[in-house]
Amino acid sequence: MSNNAKSQPEERARAQRCLEMKLEGHTWMVVADALGYADESGARKATERLLDRTGSELASEYRSLELGRLDALHAAYWTAAVSGDAKAAEIVLKVTAQRVKLLGLAVPEKVIVAQANVGSDEDFSTTMVRMMLEIGVQPPPELAATLPAGEIPARLLDEPADTQIDDWVNP
Question: 117: phi > 0 → left, psi -120 to 50 → alpha, else beta; which?
C-alpha cells in the first residue's frame, strides 16, 4: 500500500463521513476539503460507491433528503416559472431533471418492433413490374405476366419474348 492509499476500512469510514456531511447540507467542495479529497468529484464518487454497496436504508435516507431539497427549490421558483420568468423556468427544469435522475425515471421507453406486412411473392412481383414500367425498363415476360390483364402494356404483348429482356437481365 502506498503512502496515499488508505485501507479499505479507512476509505469506507471516510466515504461514510462524506455522506454524513452531505446529509448535513454541506456542498461537495466543503466535504472534499474537510476530508482530504483532491476535488469535489472524489468526495461525490466515494459517496456514490458507498451508497451502491450499503443497505437501502442509508440510500433511502439520502434520497429522501435530496428529494426534499429539490421539492423546496421547485416550489420556490414554480410561480415565477409559470408566469414567464425564463431564468426561473430554467431552474425548475434543472430541478426536475435532477429529480428524474435521482429517482431513476430516465429509463428508455420500451419500443416494440413489429414485423412489416411484406405481402406475398405475387404482390412483390406485381409491384416490381409496375416500378420497372414506371422508370422505363421493360420487365421480362414472366414478370410482366404477373400484372392483371388490363395493366399489361400493349407493347409487351406485341413484342417477341427474346426482345423484351434488357441486357442487364440474365436470360
Answer: beta
